[in-house]
Amino acid sequence: MPLIHGMFDSGALPAAERLVQFTDRRQKVLADNVAGLSTPFFKPRDLDPRLFQAALRDAIDQRRASVSPTSGPLEIENTAQLQFHEDGIRTRPQPIHENILFHDQNNRDLERLMQRVAENTMAHRLGIELVRNGLGIIRTAISERIG
Amino acid sequence: MFGVLDISTSALVAQRQRMIAIAQNMAISSAAVDPNGNPDDFRRRIVVFAPGDPATDKPDGVHVKEVLYDQGPFRKALEPGHKFADKDGYVRYANIDPMMEMVNAVEATRAYEANITMAEATKNMMQASLRLLV
């Protein structure tokens, strides 16, 4: 989602935008895992949301410690799974090693997979609402009218 | 996000093709092998999945790579009066176990429903994103 610098870099908007981008990429990985439930030798993968949260938190703390603590772009450090660009996030999903292997070496675990899908969907919805809220404030300021 | 729906759809198509093979197996499970016919017509069909979706030419998703015929031995029953009986009086029947096919059908149904749920979740996310326009 391209944003105009300065106007859309304030408050929680940059963090919310990154959250939407991350949940968008993760949804694709999870869909691939569900599609591969019956595929022999398929290796489920995922993007760890905790690593994303840690990177985002560090970037927010860094911005808070700067001269403009509530505005400006977030400088997020790349991780092994995530490379942050201006237009989005390039991802490198990692294999999940949580379950025992079936005879076809697929470690399918439908229950945990659907849990991840549910959590990702809710996180995406949260990000969209935060972005919508932020854009609503800007729209109110532009209209010079409250309500 | 639109590419995500393609992944779920490819899985739905593959699981449906698997159910068709299972239904065919169930239909011929009690058929006697015609000695003058093609023996493969009475063998169990095995659907093999592979990653990738030829419809979108992408490495994500899944598709049916091939349909194999189970080369295991046919089931034999002693029926000397049967017109398909061999010289020893044995009739060969399709090498299909209905119980195994039922288990496979349950598993295919479960996977189909999981992909439907996935597609619904993706649809909800897309609809939520559209609310940004309002």
Polypeptide structure, described:
The complex is a heterodimer of chains A (147) and B (134). Chain A has one domain (13-143). Chain A is elongated, with a radius of gyration of 18 Å. In chain A, the strands form two sheets. Chain A has a two-stranded antiparallel ribbon with strand order 1-4. In chain A, strands 2-3 form a two-stranded antiparallel ribbon. Chain A has helices at residues 13-35, 49-64, 110-143; strands spanning 45-46, 82-84, 89-91, 94-95. In chain A, α1 runs antiparallel to α3 (110-143). Chain A is mainly alpha-helical and 147 residues long. The model of chain A has no long low-confidence stretch (mean pLDDT 86). By secondary structure, chain B is α+β, with helices and mostly antiparallel strands. Chain B has one domain (2-133). A two-stranded antiparallel sheet of chain B has the order 1-2. A two-stranded antiparallel ribbon of chain B has the order 3-4. Chain B has helices at residues 2-27, 98-130, and strands at residues 45-53, 58-69, 75-78, 90-93. In chain B, β1 and β2 form a beta hairpin. In chain B, α1 runs antiparallel to α2.
Summed up:
The complex is a heterodimer of chains A (147) and B (134). Chain A has 147 residues and is mostly helical.
What's the layout of helices and strands?
The complex is a heterodimer of chains A (147) and B (134).
Chain A: H1 13-35, E1 45-46, H2 49-64, E2 82-84, E3 89-91, E4 94-95, H3 110-143
Antiparallel strand pairs in A: 1-4, 2-3
Chain B: H1 2-27, E1 45-53, E2 58-69, E3 75-78, E4 90-93, H2 98-130
Antiparallel strand pairs in B: 1-2, 3-4
